[in-house]
Write a structure and sequence with these properties.
Layout lengths: L1 E10 L2 E11 L2 E6 L6 H9 L6 E6 L2 E2 L10 E4 L11 H12 L3 H14 L15 H13 L5 E5 L7 H14 L4 E5 L3 H7 L2 E7 L2 E5 L1 H6 L5 E5 L10 E9 L2 E8 L7 E2 L4 H10 L2
Parallel strand pairs: 3-8, 3-9, 6-7, 7-8
Antiparallel strand pairs: 1-2, 1-4, 4-5, 9-10, 11-13, 11-14, 12-13
The structure holds adenosine-5'-triphosphate (ATP).
The site of adenosine-5'-triphosphate has 11 residues, from strand 2 and helix 1.
Organism: Neobittarella massiliensis (ex Bilen et al. 2018)
GO molecular function: ATP binding; ATP hydrolysis activity
Family: Belongs to the ABC transporter superfamily.
C-alpha cells in the first residue's frame, strides 16, 4: 500500500506536486493525465529517485527515507528500457538481479521464473540486439519482476506496441497482479479500460481523482452526444468535440456537453469520455 501525505515537489519555480494526498491499495491502477502534468514526477518520487520537498510517502507502513532509493522493493519499468545489445536476455536479468541484491543461490531460478512469466523462456540466450520492440519491453517487465516485488510501476508500457503485443501485456498483467499493487502510467485510455480495475486521473499536481471504471464513466453520464456535423453551434452550454465518425455516408461528431441537449442522440459513456469530462471540465 502507498500513502502520499501532503507531498510537494518543485522544479525551479514550478510546483509539479503540490500538497498532494493519495492512497493506493492492492490492484491494477491506470495513471492517466495530460502531458506534463506530473505523472513521471509522481512515479519518480514514489521510487525515491526524486527527493520530495515536503510531505511523506509511506510504502507498506514504512516512511520513505530520502537517502534510500526504493528501486529494490519496487519493480520499475521506465519509459525507455534499453540495454547493452551484446548481452543475452539472461545476462541482462543477471545484471539486474545483482543490482537488486538477489542472492547467488536463487539467481538462476529467479531468472528462469521471470523469463517464463513474460514468455521469453526460450530466448534465454538471445541477444538483446536481436529482440523485437515488444520482446524488449517484455524483458523490461521481467527485469521489474525480479525479486518478486509487491509493488510494480510501469511507465508507458504499451507505447509503440502492436495490438498482439498489447494483448500479451494485458495477459501478463492479469497473471501477476494478484496480491500486488501495479501502477501503469499511460496515455492510452483504451488500455487502461482493458487492463486496470482502478483509475487515477491526475488533474493537477494537487488533485488526483480516483475511482473504478464505472465511477469514471459516470462523470460523463448523459453528457455524451452524437450529433450531425454542422449542428455543433446548436449545442447549449460548454462543449468538447471528442471525435468525428462517418456512418452511412454521413459525418457525426461525438461531443461532450455540459447541459442536456435537444439535438442528437445520448450515448453511454466510455472511460475515455469520463476522463475527458474530468480533464476538460465539461
Ligand atoms: N528533472 C526536471 N527538471 C526540471 N523540470 C522538470 C523535471 N522533470 C519534470 N519537469 C517538469 O515538470 C513538469 C511535469 O513533468 P512530468 O515529466 O512529471 O510530466 P508527465 O505527466 O509525466 O508528462 P508526459 O505525459 O509528457 O510524460 C513538466 O513541466 C516538466 O517540464
Amino acid at each position: 500500500m502507498i500513502e502520499m501525505k501532503s507531498v510537494s515537489k518543485t522544479f525551479g519555480k514550478k510546483k509539479v506536486l503540490d500538497n498532494l494526498y493519495l492512497t493506493i491499495d492492492k490492484g491494477v491502477y491506470g495513471l492517466l493525465g495530460p502531458n506534463g502534468i506530473g505523472k513521471t514526477t509522481l512515479i519518480r518520487s514514489i521510487l525515491g529517485l526524486y527527493d520530495i520537498d515536503d510531505g511523506e510517502i509511506i510504502i507498506d507502513g514504512k516512511i520513505m527515507d530520502s537517502n534510500k532509493k526504493n528501486t529494490g522493493m519496487i519493480g520499475y519499468l521506465p519509459q525507455q528500457f534499453g540495454m547493452f545489445k551484446e548481452l543475452t536476455t539472461a545476462e541482462v536479468l543477471e545484471y539486474f538481479s545483482i543490482l537488486k541484491g538477489i542472492c547467488a543461490r536463487d539467481l538462476k531460478k529467479e531468472i528462469v521464473r521471470c523469463l517464463s512469466v513474460v514468455n521469453l523462456q526460450h530466448d534465454r540466450k538471445t541477444l538483446v540486439g536481436a529482440l523485437s520492440g515488444g520482446m524488449l519491453r517484455r524483458l523490461g517487465i521481467a527485469q521489474a519482476l525480479l525479486g518478486d516485488p509487491k509493488l510494480l510501476i510501469f511507465d508507458e508500457p504499451t507505447a509503440g506496441l502492436d495490438p498482439e503485443e498489447r494483448m500479451r501485456f494485458k495477459d501478463i498483467i492479469a497473471s501477476i497482479s494478484k496480491d500486488r499493487t501495479v501502477i501503469i502510467s499511460t496515455h492510452i485510455v483504451q488500455d487502461v479500460d482493458v487492463i486496470c480495475n482502478h483509475i487515477l486521473i491526475m488533474k493537477s499536481g494537487s488533485n488526483i481523482i480516483q475511482g473504478t471504471k464505472e465511477e469514471i464513466r459516470s462523470f460523463a453520464r448523459e453528457k455524451v452526444y452524437r450529433i450531425l456535423c454542422g449542428d455543433q453551434d446548436k449545442i447549449s452550454g460548454k462543449r468538447y468535440i471528442e471525435n468525428i465518425e462517418e456512418d452511412g455516408g454521413t459525418n457525426y461528431y461525438k461531443v461532450l456537453c455540459s447541459d442536456r441537449q435537444k439535438i442528437g442522440t445520448v450515448l453511454s459513456p466510455t472511460v475515455e469520455d469520463g476522463y475527458m469530462s474530468i480533464i476538460k471540465e465539461v
